[in-house]
C-alpha cells in the first residue's frame, strides 16, 4: 500500500493547481495551518481508487461537484460538496438554492475550463469567486476530509469544520441523501476525493 507524505499545504503549493495555490495563500494563517497536502498517483485520484490504495476511509472523502443551473438564458454555476458515500440532491435542493428551472452536473470539459483545474481534482478552494459553494451539513462534522488539489496528482486534507468555514461556503442541511439500494453514491467523480 502506498503511503501519503502529508505536508503543510503551503509547502506543497508547487504541486497544486494555480487557482488552488493562490486561494490557499489568501487564507488566514490559522486556517491555512490546518490544511495539509500530499502527492498521489494521478491514476488513483478517483474516490474509490484513492480510498482503496491509500487506506483512507471512503466516508472521509468529500466530492466537489460542479453544477450548472438554467433559468431562461441565464446559466448559474455552483460547487456542491458532499461526502463520497452520499448522493447530491440536484433536482430538488440544488435547483432551489440556485433558483433555476433546471440543474444538472456541468459537462466535464466545461467544468475544467471554468475552474482551471483537472477533472478528478476539482476542489472548492480556488473556484471562481462568483460561484456559491454549497456544503452538505454532514461534511462540517467530519473530523477530517480529503478533497482535490486542482490536479489529479495531489490531495488536500482538512477538518470538515475548516472546509465549511471557507470563503463563499454555505452549509446546507439535506444537500445530500444517503444512497439506497436503488441509487449510487454521488455521481460524477469530478470529485475532490
From TrEMBL:
Query: PANTHER family, alphabetically?
Result: CYTOPLASMIC PROTEIN
What's this protein's name?
Prolyl-tRNA editing enzyme YbaK/EbsC (Cys-tRNA(Pro) deacylase)
SUPFAM superfamilies for this protein: YbaK/ProRS associated domain (SSF55826)
Q: Which domain of life is it from?
A: Bacteria
Report the leader peptide range: none
Q: Name one Pfam family in it.
A: tRNA_edit
Q: Name one GO molecular function term.
A: aminoacyl-tRNA deacylase activity
Amino acid at each position: 500500500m502506498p503511503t501519503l507524505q502529508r505536508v503543510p499545504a503551503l509547502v506543497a503549493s508547487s504541486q497544486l493547481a494555480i487557482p488552488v495555490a493562490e486561494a490557499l495563500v489568501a487564507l488566514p494563517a490559522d486556517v491555512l495551518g490546518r490544511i495539509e497536502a500530499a502527492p498521489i498517483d494521478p491514476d488513483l485520484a478517483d474516490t474509490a481508487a484513492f480510498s482503496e490504495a491509500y487506506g483512507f476511509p471512503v466516508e472521509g472523502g468529500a466530492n466537489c461537484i460542479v453544477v450548472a443551473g438554467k433559468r431562461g438564458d441565464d446559466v448559474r454555476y455552483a460547487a456542491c460538496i458532499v461526502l463520497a458515500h452520499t448522493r447530491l440532491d440536484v433536482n430538488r435542493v440544488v435547483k432551489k438554492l440556485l433558483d433555476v428551472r433546471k440543474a444538472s452536473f456541468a459537462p466535464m470539459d466545461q467544468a475544467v475550463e471554468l475552474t482551471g483545474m483537472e477533472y478528478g481534482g476539482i476542489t472548492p478552494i480556488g473556484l471562481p469567486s462568483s460561484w456559491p459553494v454549497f456544503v452538505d451539513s454532514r461534511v462540517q462534522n467530519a473530523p477530517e476530509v480529503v478533497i482535490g488539489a486542482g490536479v489529479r496528482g495531489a490531495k488536500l486534507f482538512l477538518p470538515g469544520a475548516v472546509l465549511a468555514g471557507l470563503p463563499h461556503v454555505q452549509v446546507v442541511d439535506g444537500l445530500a441523501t444517503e444512497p439506497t439500494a436503488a441509487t449510487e453514491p454521488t455521481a460524477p467523480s469530478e470529485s475532490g476525493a
